[in-house]
Structures are given as structure tokens and as C-alpha cells.
TrEMBL record:
GO cellular component, one term: cytosol
Protein source organism: Sphingomonas aerophila
Organism ancestry: Bacteria, Pseudomonadati, Pseudomonadota, Alphaproteobacteria, Sphingomonadales
Domain Tetrahydrofolate dehydrogenase/cyclohydrolase catalytic intervals: 6-121
Family membership noted in the UniProt record: Belongs to the tetrahydrofolate dehydrogenase/cyclohydrolase family.
Annotated ranges, domain Tetrahydrofolate dehydrogenase/cyclohydrolase NAD(P)-binding: 140-280
Pathway(s) annotated for this protein in UniProt: One-carbon metabolism; tetrahydrofolate interconversion
EC number: 1.5.1.5, 3.5.4.9
Name of the protein in question: Bifunctional protein FolD
Length: 296
């Protein structure tokens, strides 16, 4: 059996186009474009590439990209000051502070300084709490992108058994909350789980987000399961995910590739969140079901 390869790149392009299609109405209503501020501290090459890609995608969607590049000697106080100014700037709807920050910076303090209604990463504890309690907020981009990919395979997610591999605040935990919101039966396995593969083997849906190349072997996947690979690991042989793709694609029913799977959805969802934040701040109504796709 050979799995359906979930084309994240194409699905992300469609989402970006649906977001871009809403921008003229926002401009007409408000006299301005939605604005996304991205803050990059230091010289990390991979981060610089992501930030450049985000800026290009933002402009292509008709939004304003405001980029702040700061030296790796930037202090927590300086970052808090910048975040305060972005919070107060009416032209800024979304604020993304690229992680990881230099070790000397208090990352949590910076995240908590962002106005939750401009927190397009969905990392602020207020947005984590809103997600956990069923309130409208801003949802982390990568897990949201995974849900949108899953809906292309499973128009009805309710009742499916989902296993999330990893429990980070950025992916694993919000992923579990989103799957729960879709009425999946959710299990989270992590580094202290006694037999992670035994749980994964039961899953209709596997979301792998541990950051270990090839951590999930084909033998751990139930035949026909849908596998979403969040891992982006740089190895000698190039970018690889957390799933043994070659072998798993012979067992799974559907699987995301790396690259070309979840990564492009993260950026598309960032634009989607920026539009959502802008519309909420301005009191402009949006049809989210249409933006997120027909099955939403
Ligand atoms: N505050 C914050 N928010 C983030 O969302 C955030 C962050 N910090 N720090 C870094 C990670 C990483 N990240 C990616 C986004 C897109 C791709 C992506 O588009 N990947 C492509 C190609 C990647 C490549 O070729 O390097 C793909 O998977 O096909 C990957 C990774 C967002 N992050
Ligand atoms: Mg873990």
C-alpha cells in the first residue's frame, strides 16, 4: 500500500490565496492594510531565512510587513521596550518574536509582554488559556496548519483516535487541545511515556512533534493511519522529519512530506492569524469557515 502524500505546499498556497482575497475588503473598511511585525534577534541563518520567507509571504498577501532586526546582544529590557511600542502602534495587528531568543534573554517575559490580541503565534498564556477553555483567541500556527491538513483527509475528525508525539508549548500541547476541540480522542506521548509505540500503533491520526529525526518507525503506525510530521530536522542528508517517511509511506493511508508538508502551512496560518487579529481589532467581520477551507 502506498500512502496519499499530503501536499502541504499546495494546500498552503490555497490558504494564502483565500487570506489575500479578504485583504481588499479590510483595506476598504479601514483605509489600511493588516500589519505584521516580525522581530528577529541575532544572526541564526535558519531564522533569517524563515523571517525573509514570512516577509515575502506577508507582502504577497497584500499585508504590511514590519521587520525589526536586532543584534544578539539585545537585552530583555530592550525587547520589552520594543514589544511595548509594537503593542501601542495602531498599524501593527500581529507581533511575532522569532524563537529561539539568545540564552541571556528572558523568553517567557517577552512572550507575556505581547498584547494577547496581537499574539499571532498564539504563545501568550492568555491565548493558551482561551484555547483550553473554548474561547476565541489566536491559535498557534503550526498546530492549526496540522488541523487544516487533517481536514483534507478527514472531513469529520470527531471520534477518531489521535496520538500527539511530544508535549511542547509550541506544538504538542496546543495540538492536543485543537484535536480535542475537533472531538478526537487524544493521547499525548512524550519522553517519559513507558511504551510510546504501543500508543501510536492504536492511532487513526499521528502527529509527530519531537524533533528527533526518524523517531516514528513504520512499525509503530497502524495501517491506513494519517501521519502528520511536524519535525524539521537538518541532517547531513538534508531536511528530514520525525517520521521514517520512506517506510511509513508504505503503511500509512496519508502522510505529510518534509519539506513541503507542515512547514508551508505554518506560514500560511501566520497570515491567516494576522488577518484574524486585524479584523477583530477593527471590528471587521470575517467568514472564518471560508478562509480556513470548505470543510471547516
Ligand atoms: N515565534 C516563532 N514562530 C514560529 O512560527 C517559528 C519560530 N518562532 N521559530 C522557528 C520556527 C520554525 N518555523 C518554520 C516555518 C516555516 C517553515 C517552512 O516553510 N518550511 C519549509 C521549507 C523549510 C526549509 O527548506 O528550510 C517546508 O517544510 O517545506 C519551517 C519552519 C516557524 N517557527
Ligand atoms: Mg518531550
Amino acid at each position: 500500500m502506498s500512502a496519499t502524500i499530503i501536499n502541504g505546499k499546495a494546500i498552503a498556497a490555497e490558504l494564502r490565496a483565500r487570506v489575500a482575497a479578504q485583504v481588499p475588503a479590510f483595506r476598504d473598511a479601514t483605509g489600511r492594510a493588516p500589519g505584521l511585525a516580525v522581530v528577529l534577534v541575532g544572526e541564526d541563518a535558519a531564522s533569517a531565512v524563515y523571517v525573509r520567507n514570512k516577509g515575502r509571504a506577508t507582502r504577497e498577501a497584500g499585508m504590511e510587513s514590519i521587520e525589526h532586526r536586532l543584534p544578539d546582544t539585545t537585552t530583555t529590557a530592550e525587547l520589552l521596550d520594543l514589544v511595548g511600542r509594537l503593542n501601542a502602534d495602531p498599524a501593527v495587528d500581529g507581533i511575532l518574536v522569532q524563537l529561539p531568543l539568545p540564552a541571556a534573554v528572558d523568553t517567557q517575559a517577552v512572550i507575556e509582554a505581547i498584547d494577547p490580541d496581537k499574539d499571532v503565534d498564539g504563545f501568550h498564556p492568555v491565548n493558551a488559556g482561551r484555547l483550553a477553555t473554548g474561547l476565541d483567541g489566536l491559535v498557534p500556527c503550526t498546530p492549526l496548519g496540522c488541523i487544516l491538513l487533517l481536514r483534507t483527509i478527514h472531513p469529520h475528525l470527531a471520534g477518531l483516535e489521535a496520538v500527539v508525539v511530544g508535549r511542547s508549548n509550541i506544538v504538542g500541547k496546543p495540538m492536543a487541545q485543537l484535536l480535542l476541540r475537533e472531538s478526537c480522542t487524544v493521547t499525548v506521548v512524550h519522553s517519559r511515556t513507558r511504551d510510546a509505540f504501543a500508543h501510536i500503533r492504536q492511532a487513526d491520526i499521528v502527529v509527530a512533534a519531537v524533533g528527533i529525526p526518524g523517531f516514528v518507525p513504520a512499525a509503530a503506525i497502524k495501517p491506513g493511519a494519517t501521519v502528520i510530521d511536524v519535525g524539521i530536522n537538518r541532517t547531513d542528508t538534508g531536511l528530514v522529519g520525525d517520521v521514517d517517511f520512506a517506510a511509513a509511506s508504505e503503511v500509512a493511508g496519508a502522510i505529510t512530506p518534509v519539506p513541503g508538508g507542515v512547514g508551508p502551512m505554518t506560514i500560511a496560518c501566520l497570515l491567516r492569524n494576522t488577518l484574524v487579529a486585524a479584523a477583530r481589532r477593527e471590528g471587521v467581520s470575517l467568514d472564518l469557515a471560508t478562509i480556513d477551507g470548505a470543510a471547516a
